[in-house]
Amino acid sequence: MTGHFSSLVFIMLLVGAAGGLINYYTLPAKQVSDRGILVRCIMLGILVTFLVPFMLSIFGSTLIVDSEGDAAKLLNYVAICLAVAISPRFFMANVSENVLAEARVTSDKVDLLHYQLRQLQEELLPLIDTETEDDSLPNMAAVADSNPDELDTTSSKVLKTLGCGRFIYRSLTGLCQEADTDESTMVKTLGFLTLKSLAGKVGGRKGVRWYITERGRRLVELNA
Question: How many independent structural domains does the chain possess?
Answer without folding.
Answer: 2
